[in-house]
């Protein structure tokens, strides 16, 4: 009976450890996701700036042709 209780408690501890590991992994994944979202925002800003520069260059080229 004591051995069964001991085994049950050990299994509970192992389960808690695995839950803790899962939580750590979730935190790591959340941090990675935030980092990727920031990178995506930066890339979108760069793309918008690039598009604006291309439009300005096109207008400048069109004006120079006239």
From TrEMBL:
It holds the Pfam family KIF21A_4th. Keywords: Coiled coil. It comes from Brassica napus. This is (rape) hypothetical protein. It comes from the Eukaryota. Residues 26-53 form a coiled coil.
